[in-house]
Amino acid sequence: MNRKKYQVDSNGYYGNFGGAYIPEILHRCVTELKDAYLRVLDSDDFKQEFAQLLRDYVGRPSPLYLANRLSEKYGCKIYLKREDLNHTGAHKINNAIGQVLLARRMGKKRIIAETGAGQHGVATATVCALMNMECVVYMGETDVARQHINVEKMKMLGAEVRPVTSGNKTLKDATNEAIRDWCCHPEDTYYVIGSTVGPHPYPDMVARLQSVISEEIKKQLMEHEGRDYPDYLIACVGGGSNAAGTVYHYLNNDKVKIVLAEAGGKGIHSGYSAATIQLGRLGIIHGAKTLVMQDEDGQILEPYSVSAGLDYPGIGPLHANLATQHRATVLAINDDEAIRAAYELTRLEGIIPALESAHALGALEKVSFRPEDIVVLTVSGRGDKDMETYLNNVQMC
User: Fold this and answer.
1) One of 169, 172, 380, 385 is an active-site residue; which one?
2) The domain at 24-53+91-205 falls in which architecture?
3) Which neighbouring-strand residues pair with 353?
C-alpha cells in the first residue's frame, strides 16, 4: 500500500485536491506562512508550550467515554470522544492555540478569523485574550442572529465581531471578508482559519494541530480495549477539522472504517443542502481545488443546513480525496435526522451535543454494525449554543 496515498505532498495536494490558488496580493502572506509552519510546529519549544496549554488550559486529554445505553441501542460498543468537554466547548480550541502561538512566533500582532457556528470565533477570541492579541472575527449576519450567545462571548473576550451582509450571510461569506482583510493588512495580521480549508498550508496545518484527537484515541483505546484502533471512526464534516483530527493517525490503517457525516439539510435534492461531497464538482474555493457546490457556469451555490457550522459549499481537500479514493464513506444527514439524534443522545446518555456533532450521531442508524464492533464517534462540541434551535424543532422527536 502507498502510505502517502492519503497524505499531503510538498505542493499541498491530497491526490487531485488542494494546492494554493491565490491572487498575487496574497502570495507573500501565504508563502511566509508556508515557509514558517513546519519549522515552528516541529520545534521543541512550540511542542512544549502547545502541549502544556492543551493540558493545563484546555483540559486535555478529553475523555473517551463508553456510551452504554447508546451501544445497546445500536448493537455494538460505542465510545464518544468528548471534545465537548474542552475549554470553550468544542475541538476548535486545539487549532486556535496552535495557530496563535505560530502567529506570535512569526511576529504578528493582529489576529483575524472567520466563524460559522461561533465556536471557532470563541476559541480564537479566547486565545487572543490569553495572549494579549488584537482579535477581529468575521461572521455572517444570518449566523450572528442564530448564534447570538457566541457573539456575546466573543465580545466579552475582547474581540471585535464584524457581521457580514453579502451573499447568504453565512460561513462562506465570512471567509470571503476575512480574506479581504488579510489582503489589506499583510504586514501585521495573521489569519487563523478554523478548518481544513483554504490554500496550502492551512489544510495540513489544521489537521496536524487537531491530530491530538486521534493521538489520544489510540492511547485511550489501548487502555479500554487492549488495542489502539477501532473498527469504525465517525465524525461530522463541514470544512473538516474535527474529522481530520479524528482520522489523522488512522489514515493508513485499513482495519479502520471511516464514516463522515455531512449536512443533508432538507434533502440532497431539495435545493436546501450542504452535502458538498455528494453534490459537489471539482472547483476552486477560498484558495484550494476541491469539491464545490456550483452551477453549470461554475458559480458557487448557496449551502443550507440547520447547523451553522456545516453550511459550507466546499470541503477540505483531505476529505475530498478520502471520499474519491473510497477511503471514507460519506453519508448525508438531514436536519430532522440530526435533531432526532441529538435528542436521542441527550435522553440516553445525558449529553447535549452541538448540532454539528448531531449529524455524526445521525449516521449511526445508517450503518450496520456487528456486536463485536468498536466504534469511536467524536462529539465535536456541546449543544449550549444550539438550545433555541433544538427547542424550536422538538416536534421532530
Assistant:
1) 380
2) 3-Layer(aba) Sandwich (3.40)
3) 382
